[in-house]
Amino acid sequence: MLRSHTCGELRITHVGQTVTISGWVQGMRDKGSLLWIDLRDRYGITQITIETENAAKELVETARTLGREFVISVTGKVVERYSKSDKIETGAIEITPDKITVLNPALVPPFTIEDETDGGDDIRMKYRYLDLRRNPVRKNLELRHRIAIETRNYLDSLGFLEVETPVLIKSTPEGARDFVVPSRMNPGEFYALPQSPQTFKQLLMVGGFDRYYQIVKCFRDEDLRADRQPEFTQIDCEMAFVEQEDILNTFEGMVRHLFKAVKNVEIPTLSRMTYADAMKFYGNDKPDIRFEMKFVELNNVVKGKEFKVFNDAGLVVGICAKGAAEYTRKQLDELTEFVKRPQIGATGLVYARYNADGTIKSSVDKFYTEEDLKNWVAAFDAQPGDLMLILAGEENKTRKALSELRLEMGTRLGLRDKNKFACHWVIDFPLLEWSEDTNRWHAMHHPFTSPKPEDIELIDSAPGSVRANAYDMVINGVEIGGGSIRIFNKQLQSRMFDLLGFTKEEAQAQFGFLMNAFEFGAPPHGGLALGFDRLCSLFGGADVIRDFIAFPKNNSGRDVMIDSPAPIAQAQLDELAIALKK
Amino acid sequence: MLRSHTCGELRITHVGQTVTISGWVQGMRDKGSLLWIDLRDRYGITQITIETENAAKELVETARTLGREFVISVTGKVVERYSKSDKIETGAIEITPDKITVLNPALVPPFTIEDETDGGDDIRMKYRYLDLRRNPVRKNLELRHRIAIETRNYLDSLGFLEVETPVLIKSTPEGARDFVVPSRMNPGEFYALPQSPQTFKQLLMVGGFDRYYQIVKCFRDEDLRADRQPEFTQIDCEMAFVEQEDILNTFEGMVRHLFKAVKNVEIPTLSRMTYADAMKFYGNDKPDIRFEMKFVELNNVVKGKEFKVFNDAGLVVGICAKGAAEYTRKQLDELTEFVKRPQIGATGLVYARYNADGTIKSSVDKFYTEEDLKNWVAAFDAQPGDLMLILAGEENKTRKALSELRLEMGTRLGLRDKNKFACHWVIDFPLLEWSEDTNRWHAMHHPFTSPKPEDIELIDSAPGSVRANAYDMVINGVEIGGGSIRIFNKQLQSRMFDLLGFTKEEAQAQFGFLMNAFEFGAPPHGGLALGFDRLCSLFGGADVIRDFIAFPKNNSGRDVMIDSPAPIAQAQLDELAIALKK
């Protein structure tokens, strides 16, 4: 037996017992006559104390050979501490050892195994198994485990069945790039790894499964942005005989349950916002509504004066930053720099201070009278002490830029507390979006999304105005998940593929199995998928998902710990009937 | 709202309520004045009854257009049936409809959607979404879901953390063939899909996770035998600071819990059998111990007479089939044919009947006296009415053949009841086995398995006699899972790779990350993996795992429903920097 207790378990009630604990040497202090070892495992830290003069010589010698991260086993008596510590849960006791066994020595780790480590990102990725020993990293993965368990039990209680869909499927060019897998048994042919189990979960609905979920790995061969992983995890769900309302209710119930069960946070019923309103008031289809600061359109208020920039703009629009009138010149310059960054792309920033004394001071005073500025104040419903920030230009670009400015101001004003959670739905997304790149319509969600029945007649005349039964769940400005009511009729699905530029043959070759399935009695159905990595990072109050994945890949898609991907043997290539291109 | 209740929900207490139910038309009977529709969903079947003379004309017309598997929604009043049915749970009521809406018509399905279908395997695989509608198939997957939930909650209650390990890893030639995935971002390099998360779970132990599990997809590019799938699912577990005993106790607890929670079957504490005994008494490392029928070695009893076959044999060994003395000549001939099949490979079968009247009659009476045969009876501890069956030949081959005969006799004598479960451990496996093909030692379990400490000194002198701390869990003669205590010391791991024919460079290139990890404080650890598909089929009382997988592949690794694998576009190949070989 390698331990009778863990390093986080012993309390004052254990005093007098002889125990064995095992773990890693967190640290050691040697004061000559007294020697302390902090022994650590997943569950906590226990102090071992040796009075060197009273202890066996061999024991003291062994203790003095120990280094950080040595793995040892200690048998001894639990005694009450003279000076108790309330920093650790075992702080009331210590162990007087009879025996110390070195189970495995350790080289000095390349970074400190502490909550705050001295190791940079690269070295911690290479030695991920050491980074995993640090409390914050392990706690992230414990949180992930807890969210997964709670998700499964909640959905199980509602009659959802977890069904595993295949990982080796077929490549479909729509959407992002697939990872592919050459088939040795079928030379010249390939499997693809799923970008999502979309078609399979729809087939489960056709198959009468009624309520499906799966916490499932998905794969996208994309050029990785800062916080994307080639493999990622979804909570994937689908329901039959439902309308949008049923799905929204079910999954807001799930998210509220998770917040309560995992974080003990009560989330109110989720509010709903149309896509049109989200764009109008926040310039963003995933607005962070932890704070208000809605867009105010000013075309009617500011145009027709001498200021050419506003007169020429498609849209003049602003936000009112509560209590920011006293921003310094330097702060306002920073904001101007911020909006002019290429990623944001505004040409400039107009501001107007509504000072505490009731005066108004703007950066365009030479074009606008005090009377004009009072109209601005009225439009913004500003109060003395507020700062009005205004952008102008082409409509879509300006909304997008102002959205970024709004978020920046929210951050600066401390309105984006990571421990506050604002969850809501964005609904009524457009079915299609026009791509200038490919000069055709693309599905905004995916090709299986159903148009709203009342908009179907527009599908030929005005495809861009057709709204979909599609919805996103947004938490703190992050799109945590999305879904839709699906098409379940072969003709409509086929029409949809036409619109998306598929030939009949392509549609049949790629999705014929699904359209055929629709002919054998497909029920109305819909669902959604939540980004599990993202959800975990949000629950953990973090921005990056990588910290919530046990063995993440870097931005080039490499696992630097195992050094993968890597070349394979010529014999493997030969068996697969493929060759490398020079 | 598409339904207020499911098709399995309505009872006599609902009589008088107006309800809406939706589902598939299971069948329809039209008697002119009365018309019945059986409406089915996942939860059950509800009868709709229409008195055609009293019902609205339009309603009757709609009803008469319905065909099998049409998807409809029915609103109407729940009424008590005149003649109740106890075959279905809703048999006390029926629905008098006010409205029938056809949600989706259906083509006539290519096979009947009944518990016993008229569809063959191939057609059911092609239309898997229709096969999934059948109760037996859905029930298998419901069972799978239930086992998964119970497994997770049990392990969670013991402090195990579910950690997702990566799917895109590195190819390692040891073991079965890997599926590989070309990396677009790293041309000429490949990921591999994991055959198991073995090294990652060991790294989690090095990382202090202490108790890990995962229900996880694994992949093997093998030539598929009848019941293998290229992707399969494991319950994968690992524990730190444990010895073999801890692991056996933990996971027999889990399996006993699953039997109790899912099947309400009490399983006694698992017995343990050494590999040596399993081979000696059953000729098999996964004996089915639902029945005894142990091997009896007869070299000392039968040799030295005139019967050359026995005299020349390395081993003469038999079983005693209780109560089978009255087997007819035809039955005995069948058994002889059975053992002579090429897969079994025996040259013949000797039998001796110990008749109810006390006489003994053997197929080799001309070589053995009655006195001799009495010695046989004594050796077998046979009773009047028993049949002794004896094989002879080279030792290993003969044991293997007799094992098959034993199982066959078990089946013939009705000793292998699918509703009885005999679970046990086989322990003390050899560390290595010699391969005649490659002329070197192979790891019997895998290269990370630890030798028994007391046998380590044999590792150079007699590698074949080194026993491992390895164990298999066997249920009803099926190896449900296996595992081992792992090596956690770099030198021993390195020595193991030497033995297995790795050069130092190969070992470092493929498993360097693991051996390096062992130098930074690796704890003693071990674990096991259970075949989840197999466990589900065993719980379901079935022989084939395919019926417990939602979308299985056929024996050529094809998904015939989606027609995968399939060729991919030249542009995809180009992006991946690979070419097909002509």
Structural class of chain A, by secondary structure, is alpha+beta
How many domain units of chain A?
3
Number of H- or I-type helical stretches of chain A: 17
For the sheet with most strands of chain A, the description reads: 8 strands, mixed
Residue runs with pLDDT of under 50 for 5 or more positions of chain A: none
Write the CATH architecture name of the largest domain in chain A.
2-Layer Sandwich
Over all CA atoms, what is the radius of gyration of chain A? Answer: 30 Å
* Oligomeric state as shown: homodimer
Terminal residue distance of chain A: 57 Å
| CATH H-level superfamily title of the largest domain in chain A | Bira Bifunctional Protein, Domain 2
Mean residue pLDDT of chain A: 95
| CATH C-level category of the largest domain in chain A | Alpha Beta
Share of helix of chain A, binned: 25-40%
